[in-house]
Amino acid sequence: MAVVIPRYAPIFGGAENQCRSLNKSLLATGSVEIPFLLTCRLESGLARNDLIDGVQVRRLGFPGLGRIGSYSFYLSTFLCLLTGARDYDIVHCHTADSICGFVVTLAGKITRRPVLLKLSTNGDFGRAFGDRKRRGMIVGSALKRFRKFRMGFISRNAQIIALNEEGREELIHAGVVSPIVVPNGVDRAAYSPVSELSRQQLRRQHGFRESDIVFLFTGRFVWRKGIDLLLTAFQSFLAKNVSNRSQFKLCLVGSGHLQADTIESQIVNIANQYSDHIEVRPPINPVTEYLQMADIFVLPSRWEGMPNSVLEALAAGLPCILSDIEPHRELGADIRAPLFYFGSGDSRALESQLELAAAHVESARSRGDMRTTYLSDSFDIATVSRLYLDVYRQCFHT
Predict the structure, then answer these.
(1) What one-character-per-residue DSSP string does 13-35 give?
(2) Domain around 151
(3) Residues 6 or more apart from 225 whose CB is under 8 A from it?
(4) Are 361 and 378 in contact (CB under 8 A)?
(5) What would the pLDDT profile of 208-230 be if each residue is shown by its tens digit?
(6) Are residues 160 and 204 in the same domain?
(7) CA-based end-to-end distance of the chain
(8) In what order do the strands lie in the sheet with 278-281?
(9) Whole-angstrom Cα distance, residue 164 to residue 181?
(10) Picking from 19-33, 48-62, 226-240, 384-398, which range would have the lowest pLDDT averaged per residue?
(11) What is the rounded distance in angstroms from the CA atom of residue 137 to the CA atom of residue 278?
């Protein structure tokens, strides 16, 4: 199986981490070989060829986030898939967006290799092929027709995977025939809760007191993750809890590095103003220690697919404050866990959930509750990899 993903390790992110975890799990089954993985060379300091977890990683194209880097990656990927067709039986592309998905599907059509595309974030397929305003009626009309052609070509010639029912409905609406739902998965054993003694040791190591109530966010520092809403809500939350505000901490683990829509400078500025309460920590993979020592996980995303960060937090036994977008709601329907939902985009509603979640933690502490994992076997990466094996076999024999 050849693998294509625009970003890959050592770049951190949900799609990147999910792809890497899936690759390791698939290789462990002994049923899959990965001759190469194609990804973009985002920085000049990254080697063009690397070996990661036993997988040959080829970083293609010119470095950078601009169009030159992107289009050189697409072209190089297309040529690599054509010239290396003898080395693989199927292609798994971890994105279904317009250009990368189209290039991989076209290469598969020419080489007669099955292509599997994954919708990494709900809305990506619709946004990629939706109408966009362009200057000039002739140019705009031509681009619109070409987008429709790409969408139709991908829909007819690739098997597309959705992460949940919302994603599946999006694909059906776009004309995709028989999309398949396969969720994301994590290694539950790697994120399992630890003893109270170990948890307190981790808190001291990371500079937090036993009495602190630590809210945790992990992920990219970008607008769609809703960190701006979290910062606004947390400031109001502190203002309303003057008497005991010293115990409330917000820990943000991640960065906006190599993100075109980063809001990292805004985050750092506010964190500096509230240095006694807001901590910004660099990205780390895995984030296990932060999950095991924190009290509450927060993800106020404006849109998602199936966020790894939430799966990891649930595996570690954390209550979660989540925006009420459909992927979060679908996930909550399958898992028994203390989940606190708020209206997406509403910082005041998020503030109220910060209050409720903090009260939940204090109550659990007074009862001496022990942490337990909330994640079911269906979201374990071993289960997910078996589902993908079934999909590969089905595609290969069709």
Answers:
(1) SHHHHHHHHHHHHHHHHTS----
(2) 2-185+380-397
(3) 217, 219, 299, 300, 301, 302
(4) no
(5) 999 999 999 999 999 999 999 99
(6) no
(7) 16
(8) 278-281, 248-255, 213-220, 296-299, 320-323, 339-342
(9) 6
(10) 384-398
(11) 49
* 3-class DSSP state of 282: coil
Strand order across the 159-162 sheet: 49-52, 55-60, 37-40, 2-4, 91-93, 115-118, 159-162, 180-181
Looking at this protein, which amino acid is placed at residue 390? D
Q: Is 330 left (phi over 0), alpha (psi -120 to 50) or beta?
A: alpha
Evaluate if pTM is beyond 0.85. yes
Name the pairing type of β-strands 49-52 and 55-60: antiparallel
Instruction: Calculate mean pLDDT across residues 331-358.
Output: 93
User: Taking the CB of residue 317, how many other CB atoms lie within 10 A of it?
Assistant: 21
Structure tokens given for 94: 């971890």
Tell whether 258 and 122 lie within a shared domain.
no
Cα(342)–Cα(81) distance, rounded to whole angstroms? 44
pLDDT digits (tens, 9 = 90+) for 350-377: 999 999 999 999 999 999 998 999 998 9
> Which residue from 181, 186, 184 is spatially nearest to 161, judged by alpha carbons?
181
332, with CB counted inside 10 A (0-12, 13-18, 19+), is middle
How far apart (Å, rounded) are the C-alpha atoms in residues 193 and 170?
Answer: 35
Structure tokens that stand for 300 in this block = 């106020």
Q: Are residues 157 and 296 in the same domain?
A: no
User: pLDDT class for 173, splitting at 50, 70, 90?
Assistant: confident
Per the document, the length of the chain is: 398
Using pLDDT thresholds of 50, 70 and 90, give the confidence band for residue 134: very low
Answer yes or no: do 67 and 193 share one domain: no
Residue 178 host element (H or E): none
Q: Are residues 160 and 107 in the same domain?
A: yes
Both 326 and 385 in one domain: the answer is no
Phi/psi for 8 (5° steps) reads: -150, 170
The tally of domains found in the chain comes to 2
Rounded-to-integer distance, Cα 135 and Cα 141, Å: 10
b/e string for 171-210 if b means 16 or more Cβ within 10 A?
A: beebebeebbebbbbbbbeebbbbeeeebeebbeebebee
Instruction: Please count the other Cβ atoms lying within 10 Å of the Cβ belonging to residue 150.
Output: 20
Phi, psi at residue 237, to the nearest 5°? -60, -45
